[in-house]
Design a protein that fits this description.
The chain is an alpha+beta fold. Helix content is about 40%, strand content about 20%. The chain contains 6 helices and 5 strands. Strands 1, 2, 3, 4 and 5 form a 5-stranded mixed beta sheet that branches.
Length: about 160
C-alpha cells in the first residue's frame, strides 16, 4: 500500500527504516548499528526513489546515529530540484527526550518551504528544530522561531529560552 501511495505525494519524508521497510529502498553502506550515516549514501538511495516516483518534488530524511540514549549525532538531507542538500551536522548532540525529533524536523522543513526558502535553508530549519525539540521533554516542540534561527546561525541546540 505504501508504494502505491507514494505515487500521489509531492514531498516524501522518512528515515532509513521507513525507506527500507515501507518502500523497499536500501541505503548502501549502513552498518547494523547505524553508527555512520553518510549523506552521500542517502543521496544515492533518494535518487533511486525519485527515479521510481518522478512525481516527487522533494525527499528528506533525518540522519541520526545514537551513540547512547543521551548522545546522538544528528543531521538531515533534503533532495529537491535534482540536488541533495545536507543540513549542518550536529555531532554528539545532548538529548533530553528524543521523542518528537523527527516530527519537529518535518515541521521545520515544511515551515522553511512555506516561508519561501529553498531546500538548502528548509533542511536547516528542519534539522535545527528537530535538535531543539530533543532538548525538551515530550514530543511537542517548545522552540520558537527565534530559537530555531539561533541554532541555524550556529549558537547551538542549547538556545537561550
Amino acid at each position: 500500500m505504501n508504494r502505491d501511495l507514494v505515487g500521489f505525494v509531492d514531498v516524501l519524508l522518512g528515515n532509513e527504516e521507513d525507506f527500507t521497510a515501507a518502500l523497499g529502498f536500501e541505503v548502501d553502506g549502513l552498518d547494523p548499528n547505524l553508527s555512520a550515516l553518510d549523506p552521500a549514501n542517502f543521496g544515492r538511495m533518494i535518487k533511486r526513489v525519485v527515479a521510481t516516483y518522478p512525481n516527487l518534488r522533494a525527499v528528506a530524511t533525518t540522519l541520526r546515529s545514537a551513540r547512547t540514549a543521551t548522545r546522538n549525532d544528528w543531521g538531515a538531507v533534503c533532495w529537491a530540484d535534482g540536488v541533495l542538500q545536507a543540513a549542518t551536522p550536529r555531532p554528539d548532540l545532548e538529548i533530553l527526550d528524543r521523542v518528537g525529533g523527527g516530527d519537529s524536523f518535518a515541521s521545520g522543513l515544511v515551515y522553511g518551504f512555506l516561508a519561501g526558502h529553498g531546500p538548502e535553508r528548509a533542511v536547516e530549519y528542519g534539522a535545527a528544530h528537530g535538535a531543539l525539540a530533543m532538548t525538551t521533554p515530550g514530543d511537542t516542540s517548545m522552540a520558537t522561531l527565534a530559537d530555531v534561527e539561533q541554532v541555524i546561525r550556529g549558537v547551538g541546540a542549547r538556545a537561550a529560552r
